Amino acid sequence: MEASIQSPYLLFLADVPDDGSAKTAMGIWQWRRELCAGQLRLPGCEVNLGLPELKPAEAVQRGIRTMIVGVANDGGFIAPNWVATIVAALEAGLDVASGLHEPLAGVPEIAVAAKRTSRRLIEVRQPAESFKPGTGIKRSGKRLLTVGTDCAIGKKYAALAIEKEMRSRGIDADFRATGQTGIFISGRGVAIDSVVSDFVSGAAEWLSPAAAPDHWDIIEGQGALFHPAYAGVTLGLIHGSQPDLLVLCHELGRTHLGGFEGFAIPSLESCMETYLAAARLTNPRARFAGVSLNTSRSGEAAAARALAETSARLSLPCCDPIRNGVGPIVDNILSMAG
Amino acid sequence: MEASIQSPYLLFLADVPDDGSAKTAMGIWQWRRELCAGQLRLPGCEVNLGLPELKPAEAVQRGIRTMIVGVANDGGFIAPNWVATIVAALEAGLDVASGLHEPLAGVPEIAVAAKRTSRRLIEVRQPAESFKPGTGIKRSGKRLLTVGTDCAIGKKYAALAIEKEMRSRGIDADFRATGQTGIFISGRGVAIDSVVSDFVSGAAEWLSPAAAPDHWDIIEGQGALFHPAYAGVTLGLIHGSQPDLLVLCHELGRTHLGGFEGFAIPSLESCMETYLAAARLTNPRARFAGVSLNTSRSGEAAAARALAETSARLSLPCCDPIRNGVGPIVDNILSMAG
Question: Model's pTM, two decimal places?
Answer without folding.
Answer: 0.90
